[in-house]
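## retry 2 of 3
previous attempt timed out at serialization; input unchanged, resubmitting
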Amino acid sequence: MSKEKVEVMVEGGKATAAPPLGPALGPLGVSITNVIEEINKKTKDLAGMKVPVTVIVDTSTKEFDIKVGSPPVSALIKKELGIEKGSSEAGKSRAGDLTEEQVKKIASAKFGSTEDRFITMVKGSARSMGITIGQGAVSEEEKKAAEESKKKAAEEAAAAAAPKEGEEVAEGEGGEEASTEEDGEAPKEEEKKEDKE
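## retry succeeded, writing output
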């Protein structure tokens, strides 16, 4: 009795026979259609989120078992708030606000418990995404300020990446500069220097 495991990330309720799932299941001789239907049934409540799924196939009987993992805490937070992403400047601008009840709901969905340690983990993830707890909904002014901040950061990064007129960029330097700008560090340092002058 030989068992094979296929581990994939699928969008909740939207698994298809397309790679990576179909090609991985094909050689195992199991009904791909049945497997996909079962995955979609088990993950329909997680629609819009990437979910880890393990398909365990008994290669002698062609029977299968599907285990659905839980999405990352950040994905559960985004789903709960109905947002696409967190704040790019956590601590400066808010992307949303969770109530204590929502925090408990997320902890329960992810960890199956609302113990203090799990609540703390959810709150930590929320904080790193620029999500506050119990401070009320994000105002229109805050949303506009966050958009302005994003635009300004993108413009500064683009300006810093472009070589100035008459300057030549030596090989290797451009790559190093680009990597620090992706982290968002280079524009901030330039802002600080300008403020001092």
